[in-house]
Design brief:
The structure is a single chain. The chain contains 16 helices and twelve strands. The chain has about 425 residues and is α/β, with parallel strands linked by helices. The strands form two sheets. Strands 1-7-6-5-4-2-3 form a seven-stranded mixed sheet, with helices on both faces. The protein has a five-stranded mixed sheet with strand order 8-9-12-11-10. β4, α7 and β5 form a beta-alpha-beta unit. α3 packs parallel to α11.
């Protein structure tokens, strides 16, 4: 399976049925699992044996779907979470503690910004937000002795800036910390951040991976390449004994390939929950099977929509990495040569009020907080997903007050363009 191409992995990775077993990943809808002796279950609690005892930590359905996503990203271990927000939180909190620091691209999803700048700040973890277009010298200046990670989004939601993964990876590794990349918009079909130096990848599987707005979820994938043991003082949680598991040291017991995800499961999922239901994991797997087909259609439809909007007299500006004149086009050519995503950001002539009239005039597309599923939808981020941010913070995140986020679906492209034309005609 390691040598198969990604479209084949989307169908077959993570689960190989035996003779007479279900062809599809079965839903194990059970909270608990039976064992013959207490000693067998005790070995699971001590991390001395593999298996399942309580679905709040792990479940066979979830683990098989996580294994598929791990294969798609080219990682060594992965886990599912109940949402993309949970994935972002766990990815950071697994290695960053009170009094420590993270360098983060300023161009990220508003909900993630709020998680980092407000909620995790209350936990004593500080973040420095840097312009993704900063120079290597400016990026280097953002690090502190207490920095423990770097975070960014492959394609930022909704600014659509493309992260220079190599630049951020080089800076992170020069300071002895990992680079965590949210790969939600690109998906592993269009970008595999590990190939460019990233160490950990997160996803809101709610978006393209599920693809049908059926199930909220998230995922974390570890490349298995970052050597935590080189920096035991920075990452004691991975490199020193965990007394809550009778002194197990994760890097010694599970190696670089499994230490990070095992710790996140054994500690964070144990204590905080946030595990998806097996039913939601099953829905996610159905979406994964058609991910390459849908991403190709999303990208071609979005390219057509971006080109249409770019030449329309009632559109002030358009941002889409696939446009030759886009500020991130060169980075997209490097990191996303097969296409970026199905989201287009643009401004309507006349600002916020004109944007509201435009959205109200749409018939095919719906106004929804969601993004990146099969049906076309729109949103005005400054008054919804990013409304907690000041004008200065909005500017740093690349979110203009008049920005309209158009999530282009997989409908017939002629119908999508006709809907845009009709709505703009009413502005």
């Amino acid at each position: 399976m390691d040598q198969t191409r990604i479209a084949t992995k989307c169908l077959h990775a993570g689960y190989v049925p035996g003779n007479g077993e279900p062809r599809n990943i079965p839903i194990v809808q059970s909270t608990t699992f039976r064992y013959a002796t207490g000693e067998q279950m005790g070995a699971l609690f001590d991390l001395e044996a593999s298996g399942y005892f309580y679905t709040r930590l792990q479940n066979p359905t979830n683990d098989r779907v996580a294994a598929k996503i791990c294969a798609l990203e080219g990682g060594t271990a992965a886990m599912l979470t109940a949402s993309g927000q949970a994935a972002s939180f766990y990815a950071i909190f697994n290695i960053v503690s009170c009094g420590e620091h993270v360098v983060c691209s300023s161009s990220i999803y508003g909900g993630t910004y709020n998680l980092f700048a407000v909620t995790m700040k209350r936990m004593g973890i500080s973040f420095t937000f840097v312009d993704p277009a900063c120079t290597p010298q400016e990026l280097d200046y953002a690090f502190r002795p207490e920095t423990r990670a770097v975070f960014g989004e492959t394609i930022a939601n909704p600014a659509l800036t493309v992260l220079d993964i190599e630049k951020f990876a080089q800076a992170a590794h020069a300071h002895g910390v990992p680079l965590i990349v949210d790969n939600t918009f690109a998906t592993p079909v269009n970008c595999r951040p590990f190939a460019w130096g990233a160490d950990i990848v997160t996803h809101s599987t709610t978006k393209y991976m599920d693809g049908h707005a059926n199930a909220v979820g998230g995922a974390i994938v570890d490349s298995g390449r970052f050597d935590w043991t080189r920096y035991p003082d920075k990452f004691p949680g991975l490199c020193t004994p965990d007394e809550s598991y009778h002194g197990v040291t994760y890097t010694e017991r599970f190696g670089l390939e499994g230490a990070y995800i095992t710790k996140a499961t054994a500690q964070l999922m144990r204590d905080l929950g946030s595990i998806p239901s097996p039913q939601n994991a099953y829905y996610l797997n159905i979406g994964l099977e058609t991910l390459p087909l849908r991403m190709a259609r999303h990208c071609s439809n979005a390219q057509a929509a971006a080109e249409f909007l770019q030449q329309h007299p009632k559109v002030a500006w358009v941002r889409y990495p696939g446009l030759p004149g886009d500020a991130c086009h060169a980075l997209a050519e490097k990191y996303l040569p097969q296409g970026s995503c199905g989201v287009v950001s643009f401004g309507v002539q006349g600002g916020r009020e004109a944007a509201s009239r435009f959205m109200a005039g749409l018939e095919l597309a719906s106004i929804a907080t969601h993004v990146a599923d099969a049906k076309t939808c729109v949103l005005h981020p400054a008054s919804t997903t990013h409304r907690q941010m000041s004008d200065g913070e909005l500017s740093a995140a690349g979110v203009a007050p008049d920005l309209v986020r158009l999530s282009v679906g997989i409908e017939d492209p002629a119908d999508i363009l006709a809907d845009l034309e009709r709505a703009l005609g009413g502005v």
